[in-house]
Specification:
With about 110 residues, the chain is mainly α. The chain has three helices and no strands.
Length: about 110
């Protein structure tokens, strides 16, 4: 700013004009915000309602399929006889078979050349 045109009164007036302009814009934003942002249904809200409905149906189906009587019986039944159970034929053995003995150095076949 040119020093010949600078005076404190112009600076003071410019400051308050700018302050009032900013304050009036803030007040206008506060007044008009509720008018422009009413009840908005977004795509996220629509999709979330469908997901919640799907999850509730799945949980209801799981609850209906759950046999609570058998579960309670299995929980309360003592498990002292678990170590006495014998494997049925055709099932995997409980103990791994002993490894076969390795042949001694004399009995090993010679490598093919």
């Amino acid at each position: 700013m040119d020093h010949t045109r600078d005076n404190p009164l112009k600076r003071f007036a410019a400051f308050w004009i700018a302050a009032l302009l900013i304050a009036s814009f803030a007040i206008a934003c506060v007044i008009f915000r509720p008018m422009t942002h009413g009840d908005v249904t977004t795509n996220y809200d629509v999709k979330s309602e469908a997901r919640i409905e799907l999850v509730s149906e799945a949980r209801a189906a799981q609850e209906a399929a759950l046999n609570t009587a058998a579960l309670e019986k299995a929980i309360t039944e003592p498990s002292d006889n678990l170590h006495k159970q014998v494997p049925t034929p055709g099932s995997k053995p409980l103990v791994a078979p002993a490894p076969a003995e390795t042949p001694k150095e004399d009995e090993k076949p010679a490598p093919a050349e």
